[in-house]
Amino acid sequence: QVQLVESGGGWVQPGGSLRLSCAASPSLPSAFNMGWYRQAPGKQRELVAAITSSGFSSSPKGMKARFSASNDISKNLVYLQMDNLIVDDTAVYYCSLGPGVWGQGTQVTVSS
Question: CB 7: neighbour CB atoms within 10 A?
């Protein structure tokens, strides 16, 4: 069973950027589709970006301009680049390889 650990969260001012990392151990599967999700207090978990093992990145229409995923398979890492952050981006961010394979989440707080 692959285990996932997110890192890179923290506090950032509106307009700022953060890059989250998701480390897979013992390694990323040879073929995968990794999703990045977020959940704000009182809201449902939502997808913000996804990346395949071949490097194809996608984001929901409303996220595309500010959220993008990438991977470094040699390091067993997947990244979420977040730009031009707004207060409403405050949430716990998770990476997931699918049902039952989730990281513990990393908190992102956007405030002035």
Answer: 13
Joined tokens for residue 111: 């405030």
SS3 (DSSP) at 11: strand
pLDDT score for 65: 86
Q: Are 34 and 51 in contact (CB under 8 A)?
A: yes
Strand, helix or coil for residue 23: strand
- Average of per-residue pLDDT values in the chain: 96
Residues 8-22: tens digit of each pLDDT:
999 999 999 999 999
Q: Tell me the C-alpha to C-alpha distance, in Å, between residue 108 and each of 16, 25, 73.
A: 12, 23, 25
Distance CA 99, CA 85 (A): 28
Contact 65, 102 (CB under 8 A): no
